[in-house]
């Protein structure tokens, strides 16, 4: 099983309206300065407290991302979610920087 997703595949799924929950694992101030379209904010240090209510469906496709390949927040959050029994967790490792580099918009 591949636990990551690349930009082009994520963009295709978003454009197609594929059901998924997009989660930014950065602190709230970074989320408010711009996030991927439709994303919710669950900072990595709050994932254990917020996942149960923010992500009630453990079978849902969940895509977690953070700032860039050097940022570990998405890895930490995705690892917690998998350990908590979420079955379809993908990590967009390249994150927000990669998205912007491709010229795709952020929401604020």
TrEMBL record:
Transmembrane segments: none annotated. Residues 16-108 form the Rhodanese domain. It holds the Pfam family Rhodanese. GO terms for molecular function: thiosulfate-cyanide sulfurtransferase activity. This is Rhodanese-like domain-containing protein. The lineage of its organism: Bacteria, Pseudomonadati, Pseudomonadota, Gammaproteobacteria, Oceanospirillales.
């Amino acid at each position: 099983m591949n636990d990551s997703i690349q930009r082009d595949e994520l963009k295709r799924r978003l454009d197609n309206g594929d059901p998924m929950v997009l989660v930014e694992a950065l602190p709230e101030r970074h989320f408010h300065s711009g996030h991927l379209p439709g994303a919710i904010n669950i900072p990595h240090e709050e994932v254990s407290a917020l996942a149960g209510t923010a992500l009630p469906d453990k079978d849902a496709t969940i895509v977690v991302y953070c700032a860039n390949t050097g940022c570990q927040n998405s890895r930490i959050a995705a690892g917690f979610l998998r350990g908590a029994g979420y079955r379809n967790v993908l990590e967009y490792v390249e994150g927000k920087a990669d998205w912007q580099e491709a010229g795709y918009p952020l929401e604020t």
